[in-house]
Amino acid sequence: MTRARQDRLLALLTRDGEWVTAGALADSLGVTPRSIRSYVTALNGRVPTGSAVDSGPQGYRAGTEASAALKANGGADAATPRDRLHTLVRSLLAADDGIDVFETADTLHVSPATLDADLARVRSLLGGTELTLERSAARARLRGTEMAQRRLLSKLAHDEMDAGSFDLVALRRTLGEGSVGAAAFGPFKTDLVAELGALGYFVNEYGIADVVMHIAIAADRVAHDRGLDGAGGEVRPAQVEVAAILERLAEKHLGVRLGTGDLQHLSTLVLTRVVAPGTAAPGEHARSRLDPAVEGAVRQVVETAAAEFLVDIAHEDFVLRLALHVQNLLHRSKEQAWSRNPLTKSLKSSYPMIFEVAVFIASGLQQRLGIPLLDDEIAYIAMHVGGRLERSRRSDQLLTATIVCPGYYELHELLRSSVDRSLGQAIEVVGVETRVDPDWASIDTDLVLTTIDPAIAGDRIVRIQPFLTDADVDRVQTAAARIRRARRLARLRTEIEGYFMPAAFVRGLDGEAGEAAVIRTLGGPLVADGVIEEDYLERAIQREQLSSTAFTDALAVPHAMGMTATRTAIAIGIADPSIPWGEGRVQVVALVAFSETDREAFQTVFEQFVEVFSERESVQRIVRRGTDFPSFLDELVAVIDG
């Protein structure tokens, strides 16, 4: 657990890239500031020649060797429970007749009792792998198919890799130092992506990295005479084509000749992570590859989601692309080869509304097609949703701007052209004033970009040069971002104050009983006031089980799918110190109940509320000072007002 918390600490610092106090880090990890200091010492000990974590008056931040520290095996820390567990699993997988418990304990320099405890942890890893651990006197052995053993190796590899990203050094630690050389996989992946692209496939780099991990496992197992049994079932022409590529590249780069069973399995994995027909928009060719039942289910769910959330996603090209993805997902579910997504956490925290739409779609697909969906798979659906919404974003979301540039030859025209070229995606120039004495008060655009000193002051006025510089572009973008944020939060303040209930404020949440107990505690006052019924809380718990609603490192927003409240209301719970939630910890829990009449407000409140609590300093201010409902509301409003 200590090593895992050290890694978690370093991951937080690496992601933020800023100074963070020991207290804030302690809240995020659920430990004391003293523990944070000991973790920092241990992390820096992993890289004796550099600094994994920098210390200063403002707290801690990631050092120049942070990445190396995450990948370090640990030297003196190499005997951690996780490293010992992985060594034990590799020994069990390598020995057909099992291992001698006492000899293995001696080899690992631990007591037989400690090894027994490690074997119990091995059993906990076997869920969903179709493997069993047998113990007879001094011998312990794993029983199960070769495919099941590979799934266990895949689980170990993902455990070694940070945030699901592909890491060849970590993979080699999982497979053992005698595995196929890691250096060969860079050229292998490069050639694989190039050849798939030449065949007209769109390659998902996140998915293909996961496939390379499976290829590494297969190559290592085949090298030890543990190949898969012969192929079975129908083989599609596309599989034959991809299998030929894999066979040739494996022999060229890895020195391994894959058998028929391995080639069929791996070609299936490759085909479930690439989408034809290349750069052309999906059309009849794409539909011909689709199971009509899958397309029909996706279409129904998308149309329902579009109506439920008032989002513009019910487009033919979106339905076809998502249906192709879901069909691949069905193949992956049969193989139990789930695709990791290193963007899952950032998608959830940065685009909570998009992720919520994805959860709704995933739930509908689960009901119609019986696909068990993990957070990483939901994140891929969120990427489809976000791409569609980005393409259909309306031009009226741009900020309007007026350029003030006194006329001299074509100077104002050149400036407008430069602004359009450099800032056209952020602002829309709707007017140009060429007088040296314009009526400043009459200019009502969102921004005023002026080459002369203005007669009035204001945040929306930005001084620029007649010939636009990079510094001018940065200032305009900063001002535009500030205006957008102010507008978003102003809408939030207007709407949110009326949604809070003083009776539904709990200070000192107890998270020991789990998320369901916290949801029921916060929901009690809402039920008593007639805002929701008990059924809403049960559905909120079911929604939590689909995907954690911990959208930031500090905030969870549990809610039910379906806007069935009699009026919109928010119950707030404060936890100090933090409590476990999903795979992380939070300090604020906001149980949200929306009514049908506030459907349009859902997006604003949901996204902007999450945005406020994504800033660590704001969270700490609200948690520390919000000792009762009036002070909580005062601090929240103060943070929103900036």
TrEMBL record:
Keywords, alphabetical: Repeat
Alphabetical list of Pfam families matching this protein: PRD, PTS_EIIA_2
InterPro entries: BglG_antiterminators (IPR050661), PRD (IPR011608), PRD_sf (IPR036634), PTrfase/Anion_transptr (IPR016152), PTS_EIIA_type-2_dom (IPR002178), WH-like_DNA-bd_sf (IPR036388)
Swiss-Prot/TrEMBL GO biological process terms: regulation of DNA-templated transcription
Stretches assigned to the PTS EIIA type-2 domain: 498-642
Domain PRD: 289-395
Family annotation (SUPFAM superfamilies): Phoshotransferase/anion transport protein, PTS-regulatory domain, PRD
Stated name of the protein: Transcriptional antiterminator, BglG family
